[in-house]
Amino acid sequence: MERRTIGAATLEVGAVGLGCMPMSWAYSGSRQRGDESARAVHRALDLGITLLDTADMYGPFTNELLVGRVLKERRAEAFVSTKAGLLVGEQHIVANGRPGYVRRACDASLRRLQTDVIDLYQLHRADPEVPVEETWGAMAELVRAGKVRALGLCAMGVRGGRRSGARLYDDTIRQLERVQQVFPVSAVEAELSVWSPEALNALLPWCAARGVGFLAAMPLGNGFLTGTLTPGEGFEPDDLRARHPRFTAEMMAENQPIVAGLREVARRHGEDITPAQVALAWVLAQGRHVVPVPGAKQERWVTENAAAPGLRLSQEDLSDVAVLPAAQGSWD
Ligand SMILES: NC(=O)c1ccc[n+]([C@@H]2O[C@H](COP(=O)([O-])OP(=O)(O)OC[C@H]3O[C@@H](n4cnc5c(N)ncnc54)[C@H](OP(=O)(O)O)[C@@H]3O)[C@@H](O)[C@H]2O)c1
How far apart are CA 262 and CA 319, in angstroms? Predict the structure, then answer.
């Protein structure tokens, strides 16, 4: 697989990563199976996908435990990205950016991941009660202590920021400017996909200008862009799409032209090419510093996604994707 470098510390990873979240969190709980997921992680490593993206809150905690089972056997082949700063409570998810908490969270993640160093440690969300410089300073100490190799920041996107268009990532960029004064940012993780391209306006250029890597979260539009979801089929109550405004039967039907457009581009490249691969190739085409982290818990999807860097979209393909209709259904 093609390799890409991200961040000031020039960290090298396979061009496509693996989002491990669906194995333990956010999507239909009844379909989460540990052994199948572990096989998917192994398959990813076999195929040159090195970046494994997890977080302490996925599960909570069980996703790191699952990734740790694989890392125990294959640590040298993997690049592990995990996150701290969000706590899952009974009713709410709350931010905690207190330095003491971050230090304890890192030690706990190292134990669950069965490793002595985290390649990329990300602040999942800044805590409004704690100056972000304080949280980031504690994270920088973890680098100096050898527990972490590089730092990243997750961006509050459409779902939290409730701002649209060009100004969506203004708050994130302000945070990034502040933490850069304390310790270099190696990567930013934020939503980027054919149907959520907002990061292209300012956040992606901000990263490109500073040699900061960009991890594209939700590059498959939570599965929608793969064309494998049927409008009206419904979602289990614990599935985030059951409450997602783009996943009502009506909006999924409205947004079908986007999938049809991806399918049309795929068709030009061969019968075996899928809309998911086109969606990932589009993300990869947005810059050499961009690494999509599609979430998947099934080996067949991992295999399909690993082939995406081999698909080179032409100018015609990119122009056709650019004129697809904007997605209907928003959090605003
Ligand atoms: N930093 C943040 O705040 C943040 C927020 C959200 C997500 N993330 C990260 O971003 C990663 C990706 O986001 P995501 O998982 O929510 O969304 P996504 O990558 O857009 O979509 C994941 C869904 O697509 C399905 N899928 C994957 N490959 C497929 C293929 N080739 N064909 C058909 N279906 C396919 C998966 O199915 P199966 O589950 O059945 O395999 C899963 O349901 C997460 O895993 C997480 O690591 C970060």
Answer: 12
Nearest ligand 1 atom to alpha carbon 21: 45
189: three-class secondary structure by DSSP? strand
Active site residue 58: yes
Check residue 302 and report its DSSP letter: H
Query: Across-strand partners of 118?
Result: 148
- Is the distance from the beta carbon of residue 219 to the nearest atom of ligand 1 less than 6 Å? yes
Which residue has the least CA distance to atom 1 on ligand 1? 154
Q: Which CATH class is domain 3-222+276-314?
A: alpha beta
Please state the domain extents for the chain.
3-222+276-314
Q: CA quadruple 307, 12, 23, 249: dihedral positive or negative? A: negative
Quote the pTM value. 0.95
273 CB near ligand 1 (under 6 Å): no
What contacts 310, CB < 8 A, 6 or more positions away?
A: none
Answer whether 1's CB lies under 8 Å from 291's CB.
Answer: no
| Mean pLDDT computed over 145-165 | 77
Which positions ≥6 away from 221 have C-beta within 8 Å? 193, 194, 195, 196, 246, 279, 327
Q: Residue 1: what residue type?
A: M
With H, G, I as helix, E, B as strand and everything else as coil, classify residue 155.
coil
State pLDDT tens for residues 61-99. Answer: 999 999 999 999 999 999 999 999 998 887 788 899 999
